[in-house]
Amino acid sequence: MTAPGGPSLARVTIAAPTRRMDIALPDNMLVGELLPHLLRHAEGALGEPAERHGGWVLRRTTGAALEAHRNLAAQGVRDGELLHLKPAREDWPELAYDDVVEVIASGARRAGRSWGAAATRRCGLAVFAVALLVGLYGLAYGGPARQTAAIVALAVALGLAVVGILLSRAFTDAGAGAVVAASGLPYAFFGGAWLLADSGAGVLDIGAPALLLGSAVLLVLSVLGHAGVAGLPRLFVAGIAVALTGLLAALLTLGGVSSDGAAAVALTAVIGLLPGYPVLASWIGRLPFPELPSRAEEILKDKPLPRRADVFAAVVRADEVLTGLLLATAFSSVLAIVFLGWSHPSRSAMFLIVAAVAALMLRSRLLATPRQRSPLLVAGVAGLAVLGIGAVHNDVLPGLVLLAAAALAGGVALYAAVVFSQRQPSPYLGRAADLLDVLAIMALIPLACAVMGVFDDIRGLFSSIGG
After folding, report:
1. What is the pLDDT along the chain (467 residues), one digit of tens a residue?
2. Among 20, 99, 336, 369, which residue's beta carbon has the most beta carbons within 10 A?
3. What's the domain count of the chain?
4. Considering the domain boundaries, does residue 31 fall inside one?
5. H or E segment at 84?
6. Backbone angles phi, psi at 87, to 5 degrees
7. CA pair distance 352, 409, nearest whole angstrom
8. Domain of 20, in residue numbers
9. Which residues form the EccD-like transmembrane domain (predicted)?
10. What does the DSSP assignment read for 401-466?
C-alpha cells in the first residue's frame, strides 16, 4: 500500500449499482469484515435487497471477486483502484481482447512471479555462500598441512567478518553484509579446531581440545558479527548458540564423560530448553511486558505506554533471536544425532534419538511462522533418516524393513498434507500431541543418563555395597 504514515489505508473508489463512493479502507481488515460497513455506507444506492441475489461481493474491473477471508493488502488492492460492489450471483462479462500475445503474457504473469531484482540478489548471495563452503571442502581435503590450513581458514573467517561489517556499516547493505560475515563462521570453527588437531587425523576426527578451541573461535566471530553487522541477526545468534553447545560437549568430554555421553547431554540440552526459548528471546529482545498491579490503588493509575515504533522494534529483535535459537537447535540436534546414530549406537542411544525426533516434530506445532517451524521439522525428518539409514548401515535392520518404514512415514505425511491442509486437526488429536510432546522432552534426561552410563554406575555401586 502507498498510504503515507499513520494507519495503513487503501483509498479506493467503490462503484455501487447507482452511485460511486470515494472511501479509505484499512488494508489489514478482512474483506468479509469490511462488507457490512460498506453496505451501510451505500444504503439507498444498492437497489434490490441482498436476499434476492445471494448477497454482495467486491469485484475488480477484470471481474475477479475479492476473497472474503483475506485482507486488501494480501490481495494487492492499491490506492486509487476501482472496486465494484455487485450482487454475488450477477454474471460478469468476460473482457474482450484483440491481442492474444498480451493475454498469454498476462496468463503467464498470473502463473507465477517473474524473475526480478530481489531474486537476482538472493541467488547471488546463495551462490556466494555455497562457493565458500566448496572452498572450505577444498581446503580440508586437498589443501596444505593441517596447521597451515587452520591459519588460512582463520584468516578467511576474519576477512569475511571485516568485509561483512564494511558492507553493513559503510555501504548500508546489511543483508549482504550478514551473508558475507556468516559465511565465514564455518571457517572460524574449523580453523580453531585444526590448530589442535593431529596431523594425521581426519577432517572431522577432532578431539575434545580441538572442539573446545573451535567452538571458542566460533563464539568470538559470531559475537563480532552480531555486534558489527546490522542485518539478519538470527544467523549470528545461531552461531553463538551452536558455539555454546560445542563448548558444553567439549567441557564434558574433558571432564571424563564419554563422547557419546557428551553428545547425548548436548542433544538433551538444546531440545530440553525449547520451551524456554520464547521467554529467553523476549528477554534478550527487551519486549516491554505490561506491569501487573501489586495493590488495588495501582489499578486506576494511568501508566505511560511505550511508543509503538519501540514495541515493533522489540518484536523484530525477539523474533530474530528466537529464529536463531531454533536454527541452532536444529543444527546441533542433527549433528548430535548423526554422531550417536551412525556408528553402532547402543539401544539407549537409539531410544534417545527417537525421543529427540518426536520432541522436535511435536514442538514445531507451537511455532506459527514457517521460518521458525521449518528448522525443527527438517531436523526431525533428518533424525529419522539417520536413524533408519544407520540401522541398515550397521546391519541392525534389513533394507526391506527400512523401505516399509519409509513408505509408512511417507503415507502419514501425504495424509497430513491432503487432509490437514483442508481442515484443522481435532482438539483431541492436538491434546494428545501436547501430552506426547511433554513426555518426549521429559524422557530425554533419563535416556541421556543411560547413554552416559549413569545407571550402570549406580547398579555397580549397589552391587559393591551388597557384596
Report:
1. 334 444 577 788 888 877 788 888 887 778 888 888 787 777 655 555 554 556 788 888 777 788 888 888 878 888 888 888 888 777 766 555 556 666 676 666 666 677 888 889 999 999 999 999 999 998 888 767 788 889 999 999 999 999 999 999 888 888 999 999 999 999 999 999 988 877 666 667 788 899 999 999 999 999 999 999 988 999 999 999 999 999 999 999 999 888 999 999 999 999 999 999 999 999 998 888 777 777 766 666 777 777 888 888 888 899 999 999 999 999 999 999 999 988 778 889 999 999 999 999 999 999 988 899 999 999 999 999 999 998 888 888 888 888 999 999 999 999 988 888 888 888 898 899 999 999 999 999 999 999 988 887 788 877 777 55
2. 336
3. 1
4. yes
5. strand 82-87
6. -60, 145
7. 19
8. 9-104
9. 120-461
10. HHHHHHHHHHHHHHHHHHHTTTSPPPHHHHHHHHHHHHHHHHHHHHHHHHHHTHHHHHHHHHHHHH
The CATH number of the domain holding residue 56 is 3.10.20.90
> What global pTM score does this model have?
0.77
Distance CA 131, CA 129 (A): 5
d(CA 45, CA 124): 54
CA distance 379 to 270: 12
Is 420 domain-assigned? Answer: no
Task: Look up residue 114 and give its DSSP letter.
Answer: P
Taking alpha carbons only, the member of 242, 237, 266, 239 closest to residue 252 is 266
14 bridge partner residues: 21, 83
Question: Is position 73 within any domain?
Answer: yes
* 394 assigned to some structural domain: no
Burial class (CB in 10 A: 0-12, 13-18, 19+), 60: middle
H helices present in 255-307, as ranges: 259-272, 277-284
What is the CB-side half-sphere exposure of residue 464 using CA atoms within 13 A?
5
| Alpha carbons 44 and 312: distance in angstroms, whole number | 42
Cell numbers standing for residue 209: 581440545
34/81 Cα distance (integer angstroms): 16
